[in-house]
């Protein structure tokens, strides 16, 4: 069988744009064309029709991905932070009367237990917001959840009133970074499911009621 001496020239896929294109390994202006580069170039022409690279927004990617396992994992993480926030707030209604009896605290000292939590929240919220914008909301929320859990458990082992005040301040400081969980979760939801899923997410804070129920067991 006789083969042509020269390989066939590339013909444009688009009518009215017929032109000669370089083929693989052809030297053009002192540069050898690579087959992979040509394939990518031709594929872009087929996709766009105007020789330009396709672009997509983050919203397009989220809509294309839909609702799946990743959103479920994110719901568990962000819901745990919301529940932890609620638990730490409801804990104040149980912790104050108990410590008043054990350590014979005054009304001012009991009120300080609540005040330091919100003071920590006041200082923590802007700092955690800056950290989340700089390093990402996901790692920030993992750190925040770890801090809330750690300092919350250590509070139960506090030997004196001063230590309780310090630890409750640190808990409030960590809670200040939990607000970005709502924003993070909403960013990965499609428009179709966003309203319903966020409504369910808000109810995750009701898990904090379990702590109050355990206090009376």
UniProtKB/TrEMBL annotation:
Spell out where the chain crosses the membrane. Answer: 74-98, 110-131, 138-155, 161-185, 197-216
Membrane topology is: Multi-pass membrane protein
Q: Which residues form the Major facilitator superfamily (MFS) profile domain?
A: 74-217
Instruction: Name the domain of life this protein comes from.
Output: Eukaryota
Any one GO CC term of the record = membrane
Q: Name one GO molecular function term.
A: transmembrane transporter activity
Where in or outside the cell is it found? Answer: Membrane
Which Pfam families does UniProt cross-reference here? Sugar_tr
Q: Which UniProt keywords are listed?
A: Membrane, Transmembrane, Transmembrane helix, Transport
Recorded family membership: Belongs to the major facilitator superfamily.
The record's PANTHER family line, in alphabetical order, gives: MAJOR FACILITATOR-TYPE TRANSPORTER HXNZ-RELATED, SYNAPTIC VESICLE GLYCOPROTEIN 2
Q: This chain belongs to which protein, by name?
A: SJCHGC03275 protein
Task: State the organism named in the record.
Answer: Schistosoma japonicum
Q: What is the lineage of its organism?
A: Eukaryota, Metazoa, Spiralia, Lophotrochozoa, Platyhelminthes
């Amino acid at each position: 069988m006789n083969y042509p001496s020269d390989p066939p020239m590339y013909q444009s896929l688009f009518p009215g744009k017929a032109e000669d294109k370089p083929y693989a390994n052809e030297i053009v202006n002192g540069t050898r064309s690579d087959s992979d580069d040509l394939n990518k170039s031709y594929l872009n022409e087929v996709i766009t029709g105007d020789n330009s690279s396709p672009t997509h927004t983050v919203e397009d990617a989220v809509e294309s991905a839909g609702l799946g396992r990743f959103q479920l994992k994110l719901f568990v993480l962000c819901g745990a932070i919301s529940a932890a926030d609620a638990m730490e707030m409801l804990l104040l209604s149980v912790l104050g009367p108990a410590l008043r009896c054990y350590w014979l605290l005054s009304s001012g000292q009991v009120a300080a237990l609540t005040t330091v939590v919100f003071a920590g929240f006041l200082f923590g919220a802007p700092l955690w917001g800056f950290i989340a914008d700089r390093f990402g909301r996901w790692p920030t929320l993992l750190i925040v959840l770890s801090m809330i859990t750690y300092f919350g458990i250590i509070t139960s082992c506090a030997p004196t009133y001063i230590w309780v005040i310090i630890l409750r301040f640190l808990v409030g400081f960590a809670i200040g970074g939990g607000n970005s969980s709502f924003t993070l979760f909403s960013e990965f939801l499609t428009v179709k499911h966003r309203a319903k899923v966020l409504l369910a997410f808000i109810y995750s804070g009701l898990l904090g009621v379990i702590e109050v129920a355990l206090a009376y067991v």
